[in-house]
Amino acid sequence: MRVAGAAKLVVAVAVFLLTFYVISQVFEIKMDASLGNLFARSALDAVVRSTKPPRYKCGISKACPEKHFAFKMASGAANVVGPKICLEDNVLMSGVKNNVGRGINIALVNDVAPFIEFLKAIQDGTIVLMGTYDDGATKLNDEARRLIAELGSTSITHLGFRDNWVFCGGKGIKTKSPFEQHIKNNKDTNKYEGWPEVVEMEGCIPQKQD
After folding, report:
1. Which PANTHER family does the protein's record reference (predicted)?
2. More confident residue, 198 or 25
């Protein structure tokens, strides 16, 4: 009887030890897997953070060189969303700021006469950013178009009813500005009923050198 009892005890102890060993091995494997996943996620998060694209002024796609102004602008969308003009990370005009209106947005002008006086008063070396909203051409006369052309615009001479147009030029510029986008109002290609799609533009403006 004692021998049988001792044998049962040995078997019980062996089963216990075997069970404990198996559980410990499984637990160790799970711990290794959990730690491995944790480290993998941490490494992935670090990679994602390091590869997140930087934000440049006005949200443009690349940084401007030294001694350049960053700008981004968009024309209005139909007669619903106003244009937006940003310079050096400062939003100068937008529908949110409630300082845009129908026509060409440099300033809120409802008649061509003060608009012409405004253009004439611009001093040499001044950067000028313009964007249309709804219709920027109907009230323009030949003198207004000429004055805008002198700022470096090439499209102003044929800007038509409800065309979308954005432009960045300067008073005293000696050449035509490279910063200009123009989409004609065309019923066959318009994105909106009666208006073309929004036109956007961004870039870097060289600062005036003394």
Report:
1. UNCHARACTERIZED FAM3 (PTHR14592)
2. 198
In the 3-class helix/strand/coil scheme, how is 13-80 assigned residue by residue?
HHHHHHHHHHHHHHHHHHHHHHHHHHHHHHHHHHHHHHHCCCCCHHHCCCCCCCCEEEEEEECCECCC
Q: Are 91 and 84 in contact (CB under 8 A)?
A: yes
Q: Please report the pLDDT score of residue 40 as a whole number.
A: 56
181, containing H or E segment:
strand 179-183
Question: Which tokens in the block code for residue 99?
Answer: 């300082």
Rounded to an integer, what distance in angstroms lies between the CA atom of residue 210 and that of residue 192? 46
pLDDT of residue 52: 78
- For the four alpha carbons of 52, 55, 61 and 67, in that order, the dihedral sign comes to negative
The predicted structure's pLDDT at residue 72: 95
Burial status of residue 130 (CB atoms within 10 A of its CB: 0-12, 13-18, 19 or more):
buried
In the block, which residue shows the tokens 């700021």?
A: 97
Judging by beta carbons within 10 Å of its beta carbon (0-12, 13-18, 19+), is residue 108 exposed, middle or buried? exposed
Helix axes 112-121 and 142-149, enclosed angle (nearest 10): 30
CA 189 to chain centre: 25
At residue 107, φ and ψ (nearest 5 deg) are -145, 165
At residue 131, the 3 state secondary structure works out as strand
Confidence bin at 7 (pLDDT 50/70/90):
low
Contact partners, residue 113, CB within 8 Å, separation at least 6:
none
